[in-house]
Write a structure and sequence with these properties.
binds S-adenosylmethionine, Rossmann fold, about 30% helix, 13 strands, 2 domains, four-stranded antiparallel beta sheet, alpha/beta, seven-stranded mixed beta sheet, Spermidine Synthase, Chain: A, domain 2, about 30% strand
Length: about 290
């Protein structure tokens, strides 16, 4: 394999030179490739879609963890759905205030191969004593568990294949059931310039279910097509309105060094462009 062509979109996509193929396998659930690219470092793809690269993963993982956890302010129990590469787990585990992390990943081979070939993603977090790693379908887990969580992070593939169910109404309803009072669900929700239906559908499913729902965004270079949106479904509207001063205090107290996240980026990320607001049926960013 000399180059890797992403096949997420018809007629448009990104190409990586494959400087060294590190691993390729068809797992029980998906086709997995991990390769070395001189510019982006080690890259993992599933079913033809780029999942993560060493070069830019920090943006995505910092924004899907520190925004909900610092907005919540007292998160003790965190659930990660998906996240097999371990990057989300690494960032969640940096929060000393978090006492328990459950991670539900459908494909154990992704975990094993990323531990071996993308070790800097998890950076030892799979050995964290707070972790309960469950290899199962995230939909089945949230539909059946009696556990409750303060923050739920859906770090899934795109809404195709095994990830499709993680964008369903049943999934959002089940996550809502699994949240403690004051809890919040955040999810990977695609790049609206290319996947506007994904935000439109999620908005329709969150509206009327969560006391406060919106999206926030960050540009992740290898999630092509512009900024990626993250869905926000909170049981308490106050969480999205935490003051800059409070976020600054919480961020400083966490002692976490970041490369992308800061409190100003946190608040600014919730300001969505007009075409996205129109797609989700909101007149403004309130
Ligand atoms: N950052 C990537 C993105 O934005 O597309 C996601 C990365 S992470 C590798 C996605 C993970 O979701 C994969 O490990 C995949 O196996 C997992 N996954 C897909 N469907 C799932 C399901 N129904 N339940 C649990 N995990 C699932």
């Amino acid at each position: 394999m000399r180059e890797y062509l992403e096949t997420l979109y018809e007629g448009y996509g990104q190409r990586f030179s494959v400087d060294q193929l590190l691993h390729e396998v068809r797992t029980e659930h998906q086709h997995l490739v991990i390769f070395e690219n001189a510019r982006m470092g080690r890259v993992m793809a599933l079913d033809g879609v780029i999942q993560t690269t060493e070069a830019d993963e920090f943006i995505y993982h910092e924004m899907l963890t520190h925004v909900p956890i610092l907005a919540h302010g007292a998160a003790k129990r965190v659930l990660i759905i998906g996240g097999g590469d371990g990057g989300m787990l690494r960032e969640v585990s940096k929060h000393a205030s978090v006492e328990h992390i459950t991670m539900v990943e459908i494909d154990g081979t992704v975990v094993d191969m990323c531990k071996e070939f993308l070790p800097r993603h998890s950076n030892g977090a799979f050995d964290d004593a707070r972790l309960n790693l469950v290899i199962d379908d995230g939909m089945r887990f949230v539909a059946t568990t009696q556990d409750k969580f303060d923050v739920i992070i859906s770090d899934s593939t795109d809404p195709i294949g095994p990830g499709e169910v993680l964008f369903s109404e049943n999934f959002y309803q089940a996550c809502h059931r699994c949240l403690n009072p004051g809890g919040v669900l955040v999810t990977q929700n695609g790049t609206p310039f290319m996947q506007l239906d994904t935000v439109r559908n999620t908005a329709g499913r969150m509206n009327g279910l969560f006391a406060d729902w919106h999206f926030y965004q960050a540009a992740v270079p290898t999630y092509i097509g512009g900024s990626m949106t993250f869905a926000w479904g909170a049981t308490d509207p106050a969480l999205r309105r935490v003051s800059l001063e409070t976020l600054r205090q919480r961020f400083a107290a966490s002692g976490i060094a970041t490369r992308y996240y800061n409190p100003e980026i946190h608040l600014g990320a919730f300001a969505l462009p007009q075409y996205v607001l129109q797609a989700i049926g909101k007149p403004g960013n309130d």
